[in-house]
Amino acid sequence: MIGPGEYIDPLLLRPFSLADITPPDDKHPNGSLIFFIRVAGKGTNILKRLTVGTSLSVIGPLGLGFPPVADDEKLLVVAGGIGIASVLGLTKKYQGVPLFYGDRTKGRMLNIEWLEMPEDDIHITTDDGSCGKKCGVLEFLESHISQLRESYTGKIKIYACGPHGMYRAMAGMNLNAEVYVSLETPMACGVGTCLGCAVDTVNGLKMVCKDGPVFNLKDIIWDG
Ligand code: FES
Fold first, then answer.
1. Does any domain span residue 68?
2. Which residues contact 18 (CB under 8 A, 6 or more apart)?
3. I need a labelling partner for 123 at 20 to 30 A (CA). Which of 8, 16, 46, 77 fits?
């Protein structure tokens, strides 16, 4: 949870995925925490305009991340839009896993150099064809899985971060895989007390900030 320390409006901190951690170097003797911020409202607009050296209010890390991957499981990582921030660490931890990364258009996407992955492992899609394949990221994922299934019958895990519409679509697909998603909801306290981030699951109401943000997709009950 991050907010500009000196502001009292907006009062609340905003939740962000910790995209990366870098070790100390000459420029940053204490190391760095890296966040990607897409301006979406007043709070993120204030963060964007902060100058170097400004102190921030930060609470974290909070919540539970993606579960470990066993040696005999194949992992596929999916990022929709700014969801790339949540899965960037996975692509570094599990080197060699394919990343499926889609957005509406190239201008909204992360510079590919940030990914620090072999280009063969990166599958990019855009809705307008300005970068990578012109299709939805799930369409690409689905065709990759059906090709993979021609020679592989073992367990596939998919770790995804993107908009809720992407998750709903995934819930309706037959991906033949265990899917974990990182949810984003409005958050106020970040520590499980305000109940503002509650999500309905087959195991009852869960707090995205404390019990998540990562959930097994099959456990989430979608409205409507
Ligand atoms: Fe308060 Fe999750 S943000 S309970």
1. no
2. 33, 34, 35, 60, 61, 89
3. 16
